[in-house]
Amino acid sequence: LNHLKHHEATTVCYSNNNSLVLPPAEIIFSIQTLPLDGSIALYGHPFEQIAARDFGNIYHFPPLAVLNPNTVSDISLVIKLVSEMGSASGLKIAARGHGHSLQGQAQAHRGLVINMESLREPETMQVKYTNGGQVGLPYVEVSGGELWINILHETLKHGLAPKSWTDYLHLTAGGTLSNAGISGQAFRHGPQINNVFQLEVVTGKGEVVTCSETQNADLFYGVLGGLGQFGIITKARISLEPAPKMVKCIRALYSDFSVFAKDQEYLISIENTFDYIEGFVLINRTGILNSWRSSFNLKDPLQASQFDSDGTTLYCLEMAKYFNPDESEAMNQSVEHLLSELSYIPSTISLTEVSYVEFLDRVHVSEMKLRAKGLWDVPHPWLNLLVPRSKIHDFNQEVFGKILTDTSNGPILIYPVNQTRWNSKTSLVTPEEDVFYLVAFLSSAVPNSVGKDSLENILNQNMRILEFCADARLGVKQYLPNYTTKEEWQAHFGSRWEAFFRRKLAYDPLALLAPGHRIFENAI
Ligand code: FAD
Question: Which residues are designated catalytic?
Answer without folding.
Answer: 100, 167, 278
